[in-house]
Write a structure and sequence with these properties.
CATH topology of the largest domain: Rossmann fold
Structural class: alpha/beta
Radius of gyration: 24 Å
Order of helices and strands: HHEEHHEEHEHEHHEHEHEHHHHHHHHHH
Shape: globular
CATH class of the largest domain: Alpha Beta
Strand content: 5-15%
Strand order of the largest sheet: 4-6-7-8-5-9
Largest sheet: 6 strands, parallel
CATH superfamily of the largest domain: P-loop containing nucleotide triphosphate hydrolases
Helix content: 40-55%
Number of domains: 4
Number of strands: 9
Number of helices: 20
Length: 454
C-alpha cells in the first residue's frame, strides 16, 4: 500500500498547484495499513493535518481509491503521537499555552490562517512608479508602524496590477518584525466557504472567535466576490466592527470600490469605506522598463535594452502581461537555442497582442455558442433556461478574462445588468475550482481562443 500512496501523491502533484503540493501534500508519509484496510498517514505537525482535513480530504480520497482500484479510507496523525486520530478528534502536538509549532524547513514566517504568502511578494521586490506610489507608501506605513493612525487600507486595481503583491508584502513585513503577530491572509471566496462550513458544522461561535479574538492583521482579498452574499456580508461587517474598535490592521483588495460592488449591504460598504482607498493604475513606460529589468534579474535572464524597450512599449496593459512576455521570450530562447533579440521578442509580443486584439466579446459569444450548441441570439435573450444560462455565464466569464472590456460593456453585449455579470463570473469561478466537466470545457475554449479557432 505504500506504493499506492506514492502513486497517489504523484497524481495529486499534477492536480494542485506546485506551492500547495509542496506545502501540504508532499510532507505526508505512509505509516501503515490497518486491519480494516485504512491507510494511516503521518504528517510533520498539526497545522498540516488541520489544513488537509479542512480542504483536501475529498481530493485525496478520490485519487487514493482510483489508484487502489477500490474504495479506500485514510487517517492522518502527527508523527510522534502514538494514536492515529482521524478528522473528528484532532490532537495537536503543541500546548495551548503557546508553545511554538514546528516550522517546515526552508520557509519564512507564514500567516496562522488562510493562504500561504508568496515568498517573492515583498516590498523590496515591488517596483514603485507614479501609478502605485500612494498605494505603496500607504501599505509600507501600515506595515511598519505600531502606533499609526492608518490601520485600514483598501487596494483598488484591475487584474495584474500588483494589489496582491502589496497586500502580501504587508504580511511579510509584519511577520518578519513580529513573528508572533497573528496574520490572517485569505480570499473572500475562502472566507465565505469557511463561514458556510462553520454554519453547517454548528461551530459558528468558534469561527467568530477565531477572527475576533485571535486575529491581529487581516488581509482579505477579492472583496468584489461578496456581491449578493447576504449572510457573509452581515457576518463580515459585524466582525469588522470589532476589529476596527480593537485597533487591528486590515487590508482589503478588489477590482471595484465598495460603492461600485452590486448588492453590497450598506453596513459592510460603510465599514469598508472607513479604509484609506488607494488606486493602482497601469504602469507608465519607465515603470514598465524597471519592472522588466527587475523580473529579468530575478529569473536570471539577460534582457538587452532594445528588447526591453520594445516589450515595454508594446505590452502596456498590466504587470502580468509584461511577465508573460518575459517568460515567453526566455522560454523560446531556451527551447530553440536562439539569442534574445528583437526578432524573437517581436514573435512573442505579436502572439500576445494579436491574440488579445482578435478576441472580442462577440467572438467569444460565437465560439461558446458553437461549443454548447446554443445560438448567440438565445444567449443575449431573456431566457432563463439552464441550457442557455450556463453558456451565457461561461461567455461572460471568458469575456472578462480575455478582453479589456469593462463589466458594464460586457453586460450590455448580453443584455444583462452589472450585478448579473458579477454573479456569472463568480458562479463560473466557483465551479472551476471543482475541476469537473465545466473546467475541461473552459480549458478547451481558452485554447481555441488563443489559437484563433472559430
Amino acid at each position: 500500500m505504500e506504493t499506492v500512496w506514492k502513486n497517489t501523491k504523484s497524481a495529486l502533484s499534477s492536480q494542485v498547484s506546485s506551492n500547495i503540493y509542496r506545502l501540504w501534500i508532499e510532507p505526508i508519509q505512509y505509516v501503515k495499513t490497518t486491519d480494516d484496510d485504512t491507510l494511516v498517514l503521518g504528517c510533520p505537525n498539526f497545522f498540516i493535518k488541520k489544513r488537509i482535513m479542512a480542504n483536501y480530504v475529498g481530493l485525496i480520497n478520490s485519487e487514493l481509491s482510483r489508484q487502489a482500484g477500490r474504495e479506500m479510507a485514510f487517517s492522518i496523525h502527527v508523527q510522534g503521537n502514538t494514536a492515529s486520530d482521524g478528522p473528528a478528534t484532532p490532537k495537536p502536538r503543541y500546548k495551548e499555552s503557546g508553545e511554538n509549532q514546528l516550522h517546515l524547513p526552508g520557509l519564512s514566517a507564514q500567516p496562522v490562517n488562510g493562504r500561504v504568502l508568496r515568498q517573492d511578494y515583498t516590498f523590496d521586490r515591488f517596483v514603485v512608479g507614479q501609478n502605485s506610489n500612494l498605494a505603496y507608501q500607504a501599505a509600507m506605513t501600515l506595515a511598519s508602524s505600531r502606533t499609526s493612525e492608518l490601520n485600514s487600507l483598501f487596494l483598488l486595481s484591475g487584474t495584474g496590477m500588483g494589489k496582491s503583491h502589496l497586500s502580501q508584502a504587508v504580511g511579510h513585513k509584519i511577520l518578519s518584525a513580529c513573528p508572533k503577530e497573528r496574520v490572517f491572509y485569505i480570499s473572500a471566496e475562502d472566507f465565505t466557504n469557511e463561514l458556510v462550513h462553520s454554519i453547517k458544522s454548528n461551530c459558528l461561535d468558534t469561527f467568530k472567535r477565531r477572527y475576533r479574538e485571535n486575529c491581529d492583521v487581516l488581509l482579505l482579498e477579492e472583496i468584489h466576490v461578496l456581491s449578493g452574499r447576504t449572510r457573509t456580508q452581515s457576518e463580515l461587517a459585524m466582525m469588522l466592527d470589532h476589529l476596527y474598535e480593537s485597533g487591528k490592521k486590515l487590508i482589503f483588495s478588489s477590482c471595484a470600490s465598495p460603492v461600485e460592488i452590486p448588492r453590497m449591504s450598506e453596513h459592510l460598504a460603510s465599514r469598508l469605506g472607513q479604509s484609506m482607498l488607494t488606486v493602482i493604475e497601469p504602469p507608465d513606460f519607465s515603470t514598465r522598463m524597471r519592472i522588466l529589468k527587475r523580473k529579468a534579474e530575478g529569473r536570471g535572464v539577460e534582457l538587452p535594452r532594445d528588447v526591453a524597450e520594445y516589450m515595454a512599449g508594446e505590452l502596456i496593459d498590466n504587470v502580468r502581461q509584461l511577465e508573460n512576455g518575459l517568460i515567453g521570450v526566455a522560454s523560446r530562447s531556451c527551447l530553440m537555442g536562439d539569442p534574445i533579440d528583437l526578432n524573437l521578442a517581436e514573435q512573442v509580443v505579436k502572439n500576445i497582442v494579436s491574440s488579445k486584439k482578435s478576441i472580442t466579446v462577440d467572438s467569444i459569444a460565437k465560439l461558446v455558442g458553437k461549443e454548447f450548441g446554443v445560438p448567440v441570439k438565445d444567449m443575449v435573450s431573456k431566457s432563463r433556461k439552464k441550457s442557455v444560462v450556463r453558456p451565457r455565464q461561461v461567455a461572460i466569464f471568458l469575456a472578462r478574462r480575455h478582453t479589456g472590456e469593462p463589466l458594464q460593456a460586457i453586460g450590455r453585449k448580453f443584455n444583462r445588468m452589472h450585478a448579473t455579470v458579477i454573479h456569472s463570473i463568480n458562479s463560473v469561478e466557483k465551479e472551476l475550482k471543482l475541476k469537473g466537466e465545466l473546467s475541461r470545457q473552459v480549458e478547451i475554449l481558452e485554447k481555441k481562443l488563443e489559437n484563433g479557432d472559430d
